[in-house]
Design brief:
Radius of gyration of chain B: 35 Å
Shape of chain B: rod-shaped
Number of helices of chain B: 3
CATH architecture of chain B: Orthogonal Bundle
Number of domains of chain B: 1
Oligomer: heterodimer
Number of strands of chain B: 2
Shape of chain A: globular
CATH topology of the largest domain in chain A: Rossmann fold
Structural class of chain B: mainly alpha
Strand order of the largest sheet of chain B: 1-2
Structural class of chain A: alpha/beta
Helix content of chain B: over 70%
CATH class of the largest domain in chain A: Alpha Beta
CATH superfamily of the largest domain in chain A: ATPase, V1 complex, subunit F
Largest interface: A-B, 43 and 61 residues
């Protein structure tokens, strides 16, 4: 059994991911990305989204949080990370623990 | 505290006492479960953060490598070079049960192709080779990150739900039931006293007459 992975991103940088066996879907607007996520969620187990786009369509992404699949993961784009991924972890920690155990000293975290 | 809307009868009292017992037991179990989830969560989230930072760096370096490769080749060639995966990943997705939360569990059978580069070397620059190779490595890490990050998110959700339930039991349901039980037993005692007084009164009336 082989499950599929997809990447949604802006511009050509998503092409690089095809070398890893990921199907690439370049998009240029937030609306198309929104529609595409809904469509791909049925067929793909893992969907990577570059974080610039992920930030804009986080309302759609949040909908898939309840079930195990699909996994929607934000990845940094060509310009580097914009902190959306780390922010997501921070938010989860806030929600679950209510205290900061990772980011207390300037984002370095404890050992 | 609000009292439950029930008739003050012995039957209801009995039922409520059973409910209280269940509620207290449920509360204890749920609290233990949430505590354990929090414990697991804190170890998962630490790992998550570590891998996340690692992967973000890796991906950024792959992408910058890729843009170098791209600038040196035509779009057609680059599509060709990247159209075939250099590692064929047999990704299989399952679920595993972590504290009764169904979290994803991914496994990869990494089968390296017989050729390191799945294209003819003519016309492809070495920069492209390099980024294809890097991508193959990064993707494995990405899958691992995907698994862990999803687990974190799901656990966080579940912990929030569990906490809400524990609080509802502790601060609303259990006090309400206790209040109602107190009310019913007071009412019953009152009735009993009323009955005794009536009997005494009747008795003294009878004695007076006779």
């Amino acid at each position: 059994m082989k499950d599929k992975m997809a990447i949604i991103g802006d511009g050509d940088s998503v092409l690089a991911f095809t070398a890893g066996g990921v199907d690439a879907f370049p998009v240029d607007s937030t609306e198309t990305a929104r529609e595409l996520v809904k469509k791909l969620a049925k067929d793909y187990k893992i969907i990577f989204i570059t974080d610039v786009i992920a930030e804009k369509i986080s309302d759609v992404i949040d909908r898939y949080i309840e079930s195990a699949y699909p996994i929607i993961l934000s990845v940094p784009s060509k310009a580097g990370s914009n902190g959306f991924g780390i922010n997501g972890i921070k938010k989860a920690m806030d929600k679950a623990l209510g205290v900061d155990i990772l980011f207390n000293d300037k984002g370095e975290g404890e050992k | 505290m609000a009292r439950l809307n029930v008739n003050p009868t012995r039957m209801e009292l009995k039922k409520l006492k059973a409910r209280l017992k269940t509620a207290i037991r449920g509360h204890k179990l749920l609290k233990d479960k949430t505590d354990e989830m929090v414990r697991r969560f804190s170890s998962v989230i630490k790992e998550n953060k570590k891998i996340r930072l690692e992967v973000e760096q890796d991906v950024a370096s792959v992408l910058s490598q890729f843009s170098v490769a791209r600038s040196l080749m035509s779009v057609k060639d680059i599509r060709l070079a990247f159209s075939m995966p250099s590692v064929s990943l047999g990704l299989s997705c399952g679920v595993k049960n972590l504290m009764s939360v169904e979290v994803p569990s991914l496994s990869i059978d990494e089968a390296q192709g017989e050729d390191k580069y799945p294209y003819s070397l003519i016309g492809i620059t070495s920069e492209a080779d390099y980024s294809v190779e890097l991508m193959g490595k990064v993707i494995v890490k990405l899958v691992k990150l995907a698994e862990i990050e999803k687990t974190t998110m799901m656990l966080a959700n579940e912990i929030e739900k569990g906490k809400r339930r524990v609080n509802a039991l502790e601060n609303v349901l259990i006090p309400n039931i206790e209040e109602t039980i107190r009310y019913i037993s007071m009412k019953l005692e009152e009735n009993e006293r009323g009955a005794t007084t009536r009997l005494m009164k009747v008795k003294s009336m009878l004695e007076n007459r006779g």
